[in-house]
Amino acid sequence: MLINSLSVIDYRNIDFIKINPSENINIIFGENAQGKTNLLESIWLFTGCKSFRTKKDSELTGFEKDFAKNEIEYFAFGREQTATLLIDKKRKAIKNGIELRSPAELIGQFYAVIFSPMHLSLIQDGPINRRAFLDTALCQLKPNYAKGLARYKHTLEQRNALLKDIQFHSELYDTLDVWDEKLSSYGAAVVFERIKYSKLLSKHADEIYYGISDGKEKLTVEYVNNTGMYIEDPYEIKNFLLERLHQTRRDDIFNKITGIGPQRDDLEIKIDGLSVRKFGSQGQKRSCALALKLSEANIIKEITDEQPVILLDDVMSELDIKRQDYILNHINGRQVFITCCDPATVLRMCEGKTFHIEKGSLI
User: How many helices (H) and strands (E) does the chain have?
Assistant: First the structure.
C-alpha cells in the first residue's frame, strides 16, 4: 500500500494541498491548528471508515465551501489505482473512475492505521474506547463485519426502545422473545469475530511489548464479557447470550436498557497476569497502547499481505526517546505520515520528506 499522490481541496481549513509523498517517512509539521491533523484525516477516510474525529461528514467541508474533494493515486494489490472522495453533507466515493454505491465499499481497498494521542489513553480509559478500537480494526479488514455490527446496533436500539415502552404497554412483553432471538444471533457474530481478532492481537502485542520491555514482561490480551469469558464457538456464544438475556430481562425492563451483550464487553490487558489498567504504571500503559496499535498494522499485513499506511498524529512528542525510537525502528518498509510541531525531533532518527503547513496551505 503506497500513496504516490495526495490532493486535498476545501477540506476543513485546507484550501488546497497537493503532495507527492516519500514511500518511507513523511513529516508534516507546523504550529497547532494549521491543518496537520486534517491532512492525516483526509488520508484515513480512504479506508472507507468514518473519521476518527467526528461522526458528521458535514463537518469535513471547508467553511462556506460547497464541497470538499480528496484524491489519491496509490499502488495496491499489484497495480496503480485512484480514489476520490467528494464531501458535502455526506461522502461520495469514486474508485478507478467508477462511482461506488457507498464510501463503505472502499473498505478492504485501502488500508491505514491511525495512532493519535487519544490512543495513548486506550488502556486507562473506559471499555467503550477498547471496543471502538476492535470494531475499527475489524471493519477495515472485513466489510461483512461492519454490516453485521450495524445490524446488531440497530436491533439493540429497537429492543431498548421496546424496554422503555413496556411499562406503558404490557402486551409488548411477549414480543421480547423475538427481539432476544435476533439480538443474540447478531451479537454472537460480532463477539465471535472480536474473539478471533483479540487472539491475533494478543500474539502480536506480546511480541512487540517483549521488545519494548527488553524481554522483562509478558503482555496478554483477552476478550471478556461482564460475567467472565466467552466460549469460542459461535453457536455456543449465541445460546449464552440468549440465556443471559432471559436471565436479566427483569433488570432490563426496570433499567429500560439492555444490560448484556457485545456493547458491554471489554478487552482485558494484563502484564505478568496483572491488569494494566488497575496496576500498571503510566509508562506501561503507554507501551501497551503502542503495542496494540503496532499489532493492528502487523495483523493487516498478515491477513491481506498489504502493508498499511501508518498515520502518526502528534504522538511522538507524547512518548519518551526509547518509545519514539521503537516506533521508527518497527515501521521500516511502510509508508508513514507523522505530524509534529518540530520536525527536528523526528529527523534526528530518520530521513524522509518534510511538508510545512501553515493556515491550511504548504509553505
Answer: 11, 16
